[in-house]
UniProtKB/TrEMBL annotation:
GO terms for molecular function: DNA binding. This is Response regulator transcription factor. The modification 4-aspartylphosphate is found at residue 42. It comes from Ktedonosporobacter rubrisoli. The keyword Hydrolase does not apply. The lineage of its organism: Bacteria, Bacillati, Chloroflexota, Ktedonobacteria, Ktedonobacterales. PROSITE patterns: HTH_LUXR_1 (PS00622), HTH_LUXR_2 (PS50043), RESPONSE_REGULATORY (PS50110). Keywords: DNA-binding, Phosphoprotein, Transcription, Transcription regulation.
Amino acid sequence: MREGLRIILEDTADIEVIGEAQDGLGAIKQAEELEPDVILMDIRMPLCDGIEATERIRQQANGPRPRVLLLTTFDTPELVIEGMRAGASGYLLKDCSAEEVGSAIRTVARGQVLLQASSAVDLLAGLANAQASRPTSPTQGETFGLTARELDVVRLIAKGRNNAEIAQELSVSDSTVKTHINHIFTKLGARDRAHLVVLAHQFGLS
């Protein structure tokens, strides 16, 4: 599968493949050495799985953190949730088309969160189940000090909107949206947009 992905991506004009790894430890090492923009990360790998590798890569980055795009199957929504909590920017199903792979890489490279529509229902169902299986947090259901407008921004981010789309929908400037997002990250303790999406669903803010 890795060889097939490489062949597909090498034929894509605006994407350059700079490294490959056969396990999670190799991925961590190459991420540090090569500083890629985007990493396609299989969730299930030997030595160190894709979730742990994602978390370690996101923590060790000295410069801009690489965006991680998880590769998964229909039967792993819980693992996708854990991967996004670890810092992944989205996920792709392993049976996706070549066009979908390229489009997904471009999406996360732009800083957007990618939830593949064909299995988003499975992911959200998994989020709900994971939330129900844990003890209720004393802060669950609260708004964490978010203003009404900040809650609007959270809901739109959870729907996959980018800053420009949010600004247009709320009739505000791009800079205002960025300010709201900075405040939201601080109040919720979110690392990035992907983590914010997970938190929004987990705490019923979306």
